[in-house]
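Teaching note: in complex prediction, the entire set of molecules is handled at once rather than each chain in isolation. The prompt given to students was simply: 'Predict the structure of this complex.' The entities are:
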Amino acid sequence: MLTIDQATYDAIVAHAKRDHPDEACGIVAGPEGSDRPERFIEMINAAGSPTFYEFDSTDLLQLYKEMDANDEEPVIVYHSHTATEAYPSRTDIGLAMEPNAHYVLVSTREHGNDAGPVEFRSYRIVDGNVTEEEISIVPTLS
Amino acid sequence: MAIEVKIPTILRTYTAGEKAVSAEGKTLSALIDDLEANHSGIKERLIDNGDLRRFVNVYINDEDVRFIGGLDAELKDGDQVVVLPAVAGGC
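The expected output is the structure of the full assembly:
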């Protein structure tokens, strides 16, 4: 199960809506082994595309050095789908390289940049196997 | 000649869980062969058809090797190499 606080949830949704129709992407880092998504980090989609996302390689190195220095790891890796459901695509599955992370998918296909509900789902992706998990949204992480 | 190579989580199965290992080589290509000699199987995860895999990033002293010669990028004692899988996907 993914436990996420309301503010982080809202930040992911806001980013996805803002970048629609391009895919938005980012990470929520947390202390290694804690499974606590504490530090929301919006990334730029270097692909700038409605059908693909990729962190810029320089940004990626910077991010991982920062997490390394803080003893953090990516607890959530999120991205949006802007025309399809919030389910990992074959490409998403093939490129999922963080076995400990929750992969969050947001779909903005219904309301785009406008207010309104989004699909927000979370998965584990390990060795090509996708397992959807429940999401618990809490006011603050206890 | 020792070069520290930082290994991402997904490849630590090849390094007995170690986050960083020491390796040798005058070029990135030679370094990867040396890694393979001690951590069998890792090369295939980095190289495909004789070139670096598209979604694996390798940095030498913070420079993406794609901009400094790729597998031919030169290495010297004390350099630091970081391997990071791309964070990418698409619908």
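Point out the following to students. The first helix of chain A runs from residue 6 to 19. The two ends of chain A are 15 Å apart (CA to CA).
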